[in-house]
Design goal:
Blueprint lengths: L1 H17 L5 H13 L7 H12 L4 H13 L7 H11 L1
């Protein structure tokens, strides 16, 4: 498990560097790493931040992730209107 943890930590480092290229998919993946604690300490606030950055690049999986987080109130105040807004953007 130590090897996998070190590998995930290295992957998180490289994804952070790759996000500077402006690609929504890389920002989404980094958000997911923070969401699940893969290679980084689990931090839902950072997950929302990275999902939002990816969603602003019109990356649909990130828009869906934000929809779900607002719908469930996961690390953000539950807001069904914002959830619906992100859902509409993802359509």
């Amino acid at each position: 498990m130590l090897f996998m943890s070190a590998s995930l930590a290295k992957a998180a480092e490289w994804y952070r560097k790759a996000t500077e290229q402006g690609d929504g998919s890389r920002k989404f993946i980094l958000g997911g790493m923070f969401h699940h604690g893969d290679g980084v300490e689990k931090d839902l606030a950072k997950a929302v931040e990275w999902y939002r950055k990816a969603a602003e690049h019109e990356y649909i999986p990130a828009q869906v992730a934000l929809c779900n987080m607002y719908d469930q109130g996961e690390s953000v105040e539950q807001d069904k209107a914002k959830a619906a807004e992100w859902f509409r953007k993802a359509e």
